[in-house]
Specification:
Blueprint lengths: L1 E6 L3 E4 L3 E5 L5 E5 L2 E6 L5 E5 L11 E6 L2 E6 H4 L3 H15 L8 H25 L3 H13 L1
Antiparallel strand pairs: 1-4, 2-3, 3-6, 4-5, 5-7, 7-8
Helix pairs in contact: 3-4
Length: 147
Amino acid sequence: MLSVKMLKPYYVKEESDCIRVVLAYQYFSLSLDDKVYQFVPLEAREIRINRKTQKVENEEDVFVFQKGKEYSRVALTELLKLSDFLTHLNSIVQPYLNGDKTPIKTEEIDQVIIALEKENLKRLIDTSLEDKNYQDFKKYTKKLKEM
């Protein structure tokens, strides 16, 4: 029986039309007939997912796995039939597919910007005090109070 022991991307590359999940040694292993095989990049070494259709583009690619001197070739089509493989792959790819590349909310960004602006005004107030510029001091303190 075939099952996924571990599936971690070496890296994920975002392109305009697809997402490439690049695999490497020690990041992908399968359990096949109660033996654990490690991925070796002899043939295919990436999984390409179309951004629009959210489907795997290179289904016909073959991945090679090794246990000692024994090699096993597994087509991506076979891996896509495994629920645990799909679960791992979805967890890797989902953050890149949902259209929102940053998980930060707009309100949080606005709060950070306001805090930075306040800090900047405080620095300007300090500078105006050091330069004994009363007009700038009044202008910046007024702006800070308005925030």
